[in-house]
Amino acid sequence: MLIQCTKSLLDQLGIKNSELHPQEGHEQFPNSFMAWHANFVSIDRKKAIVLMNYETRYSIVIYRPSKKDYSKINELIREAIITALRMEGVRKEVIEAYMEKAGEITFSKTASRSMVGKMNNALREIEIMQEYSDEKTRIQRYISMITGNFIQLSGNDPGFYPIEKMLECLSLIYGQEGHEAVEDVLEIDMYQLKIKINLEGHEIWRRVIVPSTFSFRHLHNIIQAVFDWHNDHLHEFVVERAERKDLKIVMDDDTESMEFFDFEAFEILQERFVALEEIFPTYGEVLYEYDFGDSWEHTITMEKVVKSNELRAIFVEGIGERPPENVGGEGGYEEYLRIMADENDPEHEDMKTWAENQKERNISQAKINNRLKHIIKGYRYSYFL
């Protein structure tokens, strides 16, 4: 495996010219797939190493490397590639086949100015999504999942997604061809979850299948999509634990808000950086609260684990219409139902008009699943989706 480094990274690693390998010979597949370009950069004033695969432009970030990390950079690069591909659901044996074929890590200078330009483009994409950078973690596993779905342009050729090209190349390296081969590269643990709104006298729930490597930020967006919540309010997850203090998995768009959490009563984690597999199936049930004013509490129950060769969330089925947004909690919801059921009530018409933009829309299963395709890129409520 050839790591083609910028001068700044070579200086940081202390690699001399006499120790460098030739950069030629990796322009065409499969050798191009065994080569990665690497740069030493600053992301939000924090040092990082950005790796970008020569063939696929798939990017990986090693964040805030220490002096000790530089001394074992070969091991760290291998670990970073393996970690990123596992997060994408690539089978262990496929990764092993790729790493074996790529061979020992060697270093060279960058192959061309154009590749340096492409790395700079990748850095801009990473900076756009830097909210997913976890300062406590060397290998930024969620950055790769997001930027791998940013379309890349190449001359007059149609654009491509780095993750799709990565999977195609892995399938070829693994000795397979065609669309089915790409699917065979993946083997993903999927969690079947039942998400029920805890509202006495009402049966309101949705069943979804979610990749185990998705984060709780992804799960929040999935819940918003399948219930057609507006994503306008605060939320949090709570994991009740008998053997230690309960765990809160919190939204953290504003990191300063972390100062106000009760660290004495709860263990606090940020939802962007916690994978579902870190909680399920150890704890089979998680509480999710949306809108701390109306306080809509959802119980998320893990039902089973299934295997899949697609890294995407799937809406399976559901029962019941959720309460309207901003209806005033459980009491307000009961009053809303009473007024809507009585056409002679003087507030009926006004309530009906108000509810048009507040209640859950009647969206087909196909449209909901089309929404869920965008979860990996970040979901925002849209009235037109």
- Could you list the spans in which at least 5 consecutive residues all have pLDDT below 50? none
Q: What's the number of extended β-strand segments? A: 15
SSE run: EHEEEHHHEHHEEHHEEHEEEEEEHHH
CATH architecture of the largest domain: 2-Layer Sandwich
The CATH topology of the largest domain, please? Nucleotidyltransferase, domain 5
Number of domains: 3
> What is the overall number of helices?
12
- Portion of residues in beta strands equals 15-25%
Q: Main β-sheet: number of strands, strand sense, barrel status?
A: 8 strands, mixed
Kindly report the average pLDDT value.
Answer: 91
Descriptors for this entry?
alpha+beta; single chain; five-stranded mixed sheet; Nucleotidyltransferase, domain 5; 3 domains; 12 helices; 385 residues; eight-stranded mixed sheet; Structural Genomics Hypothetical 15.5 Kd Protein In mrcA-pckA Intergenic Region, Chain A; 15 strands
